[in-house]
Amino acid sequence: MSKILIVMSAAGIWERTDGSAYPTGYWAEELAAPHEKFVEAGHTVDFASPGGVLQPLDQHSADPEVAGADCARHVAHAEKALREFGPLLKLSEVDIDGYAAVVLPGGHGPVVDLHQDADLGRLLTAADAAGKLIGAVCHGPAALLSAVDAEGKWLFADREMAAFTDEEEELFGTAEGAPWLLAARLREMGAVHRGGPAYQQFNVRDRNLFTGQNPASSARMAEDMVTALD
Description:
Elements lengths: L2 E5 L5 E3 L5 E3 L4 H13 L3 E6 L14 H4 L3 H15 L3 E2 L10 E4 L13 H12 L3 E5 L22 E2 L4 H7 L9 H7 L3 E2 L9 E4 L2 E4 L5 H12 L1
Parallel strand pairs: 1-4, 1-6, 4-5, 6-7, 7-11, 8-9
Antiparallel strand pairs: 2-3, 10-11
GO molecular function: glyoxalase III activity; transferase activity
Keywords: Glutamine amidotransferase, Transferase
Protein name: Type 1 glutamine amidotransferase domain-containing protein
């Protein structure tokens, strides 16, 4: 079986354009559903983040009115998986050669730190060059923006991908005051962004890149990756 690396943000605060601080963290379903699918298929999962910092849980993902009736199970699974893994790996020390896939879950954290993390950029560039699978869901595709070369060319330009849409950001109430909107930025950088109905499962595969639009797309992304690994 294969080893899979889940790269988490280290951000707990998303600074808004008015200077206010919006609490953020990992979105439980986006971490738990892929982890569960990978482990069920017999794969080993490691966790890493910038500096090895354990990001807090986004409390919205524990609210049934926001995250659905199954959110308590996702929270419990995510917390157990992180607790059993122990201290997160430091992203700067990760050797991608030992992994078959890299997964980037969301929460708003990736738009705070991962989108410009040079260590992640090098890791993703090496992973893509080696044909390893890369998965990103919801705001996770922001982390793909880190993969730029010395001339500023983005590795994933012209690739098809899904991500949290501008419409969903507006419906969630976080579009106004956001420093930038993810789907719009991806398009500006040259991605071929595909979107489905708000908050409904929608997934896109482009070669070794697997993306999902929102939390509801997390499990399907992982299922598609497991199939490809098999």
